[in-house]
Amino acid sequence: MKKRFLLLFMISVLLVLVTGCGEAKEATNFDFNKSVMKAINQSIVDKYQNVSDLEYDYYIHDGSDLEKAAVEGFKMAQDTDHVGAFVDFEQNDDHLKIVDGSDGQILCTTRCIFKNRNVDITVYYKENREYNLQKNEIYSKLAQEAMSAGYDDLNKYILDYYAQYGFNTESVDLFLDDVLMNNSGLTPYTAVDCEVSAVYAKPELLKRAGINTGIGMGTVFVVLIFIAFIIYLMRFIPVLFGGKKKEEQKVEKKPAVSQNALADKKAPLPPAFVADDNENLVDDTELTAVITAALMAYLGSGSGEKPAAYTDSADGLVVRSIRRVR
């Protein structure tokens, strides 16, 4: 039971996290009015979505960052995405997204309807502090005028004296915004940059992703095959430089070593055992006589006594060892 409860709890937390990440939080970097931002976005689209070649050249070379981004974005949407002619703005505010950006900016996205495909334009805004300064100064002047005219309510004073000029008199704040934006050309936010992106349906996105994946994998395999071919050709490099082919190269066998050569490599014999080439070993009468006398003396003593060869003889000859005399 505890395991099931723990599993359900983890699933609930995961769903909450996914839902929170999927929903964009409303911008809070500075105070804004959705209607004003939407109107500014639409004015940017009207001004830059269809420019002449002369205007395009001017904006690209001498325009601001906003103007360059706008004309380039709409041109790419026409040339690459083929969105067609502009039709109208999306009236459903569900597509209006206002979120915080970096460096204290606010991003406002508006959807535009084109003939072949919808387009989203995202404008980057930063707070216009000059606008707030001018608004505060006008508010102080209006308050002094209302007091001089005997009005305790500033809203009533604005309604009585400025409604006839066509200004928005629903509130003091809206009246001040109307005066500054229409008469002074100031806006509470300054557009500094923008992005233009065509809207594709999910099947189209999957198709494009599949095509891009196929192109990428195909490119990788082609490069690998090319590398393998280069490695195969490297075996012919020795032939080009005058060498022999690998299969023609034979392993040279070492010559067999004869027994005489091995004998020659042995340590030299002592001089006593080295035969003299000039010495005649067959006709050596003195050596034969000595050996014969020694054998006869040894064989003549059969009683186990000391051989006669080791006894004193009349001529004093005693055989101690046999050695070849040089």
Account of the protein in words:
This protein is of the alpha+beta class and 326 residues long. It contains eleven helices and five strands; from the N terminus they run H-H-H-H-E-E-E-E-H-H-H-E-H-H-H-H. The protein has helices at 2-22, 34-48, 53-62, 65-79, 129-148, 154-162, 172-184, 202-233, 237-240, 259-265, 285-300; strands at 86-89, 97-100, 106-114, 119-127, 189-198. A hairpin with a 5-residue loop joins strand 2 and strand 3 (106-114). The longest helix has 32 residues, at 202-233.
Write a brief structural summary.
This protein has eleven helices and five strands. It is α+β, with helices and mostly antiparallel strands. Strands 1, 2, 3, 4 and 5 form a five-stranded antiparallel β-sheet that branches.
Number of helices: 11
What Rg, in angstroms, do the CA atoms define? 57 Å
Terminal Cα span: 116 Å
Shape: elongated
Mean pLDDT: 79
Sheet-strand content, in percent, reads: 5-15%
As residue ranges, the low-confidence spans are: 18-22
> In percent, how helical is the residue content?
40-55%
Strand count, sense and barrel status of the largest sheet are: 5 strands, antiparallel
Strand-pairing-aware structural class: alpha+beta
How many beta-strand segments? 5
Order of helices and strands: HHHHEEEEHHHEHHHH
